[in-house]
Amino acid sequence: MKEIFSRRSNRKFTGEPVSDAHLEKLLRAAMNAPSACNEQPWEFVVIKDRDIMKQIRTYQRFSAPLDTADLAIVVCGDTKRQQFDGFWVQDCSAATQNLLLEAEYLGLGAVWMGLHPIKRWTDKTKELLNLPDQVMPLGVIAVGHPAMRAEPVDRYQPDRVHFDKW
Ligand SMILES: Cc1cc2nc3c(=O)[nH]c(=O)nc-3n(C[C@H](O)[C@H](O)[C@H](O)COP(=O)(O)O)c2cc1C
To answer: Which of 49, 69, 78, 165 is at a distance of 20 to 30 A from 127, taking alpha carbons?
Structure first.
């Protein structure tokens, strides 16, 4: 549980490589997420090519963390692998959060950068990464060894909790 409360977004990285063993742990954690009807509609594109990261920088305005990230992981959902339209978003979000928590556990830094539902960003990403028509990119996660760490924050707000009825 510690990682849930210590995790913060990391946007500056040292340049030290992320090992393949750590990369696999990140992906294992992501794929252990819950999903609607256990359909596991996720697909992951691991990007190590700096040119591809630079191209994402040109259209996703808030993707500066890619400048120093060792790698990026684009979390995608296969919309054909779901019985009920739209649940891929929650499924892939759960996978993303699992991945962020595993990164924290491993002492890595990471930040989730959104793509869906900004159509311009998802269209560009689909083209750039050669994604099949039915595969939608949810977001891109920059991963690396953290150059700095933000302090944990407590966001508990008791007034946001409603018992029985609002
Ligand atoms: C759906 C989503 C999209 C996000 N997009 C970006 C982004 O494009 N660029 C970025 O630097 N951070 C992005 N973030 C990270 C948030 O800014 C960050 O989680 C929030 O400010 C809370 O800070 P913390 O992660 O350090 O707790 C995104 C987070 C989520 C959940």
So the answer is: 69
